[in-house]
Amino acid sequence: MGRTGRLFAFQHYNVVPDILLLGKALGGGMPLGAFISSSEIMKTLSHDPILGHLTTFGGHPVCCASASAALEIIVRDKLAEIVIEKEKLFRKLLVHENIRIIRGKGLLLCIEFESEKFNQDVIARCYEKGLITDWFLFAANCLRIAPPLIISDLEIEDACRIILEAIDEVKKEF
Questions:
Q1: Distance CA 66, CA 91 (A)
Q2: pLDDT at residue 99 tops 80
Q3: Fewest CB within a 10 Å sphere: which of 25, 60, 95, 171?
Q4: What is the mean pLDDT of the chain?
Q5: ∠ CA 109-114-119 to the nearest 5 degrees?
Q6: Class of the CATH-defined domain 81-173
Q7: Where in the chain is the domain with CATH 3.90.1150.10?
Q8: Sign of CA dihedral 102, 104, 105, 107
């Protein structure tokens, strides 16, 4: 929620989904999920399958209170509105001959490298330097950047410095 610069990513593309599924971000750190749709679609789920739209993590009052507070803060502090500037800073700083491309939007970015091995070695070096990052199950040669909305410019600069140092160290080994 908010990581792409809008509350929901679909809002960038002038579409309205038939069904919107919300999970991790909705709960503000608590386990919560939501299924949002029209009355017509919801009626079909009353019988085919029965209660097919339910979630294990839907409706718990503590989780709902967490979701309400998280949404209030995202909107009140206009966190989504500053995401694009943070993305620009990542893209400006993450320039290296071994980066094939940076894909994504806002604070959901991916750095593509030549191989899974190169990426895994960069991730390991980042971890040794105190930066936790990961890869994508569907793209093992891509490093994931998905920081919290409240990441500061200084933290972005530190993260980028560590990633670039890690790339340089791994490059020497290849």
A1: 32
A2: yes
A3: 95
A4: 92
A5: 60
A6: alpha beta
A7: 81-173
A8: negative
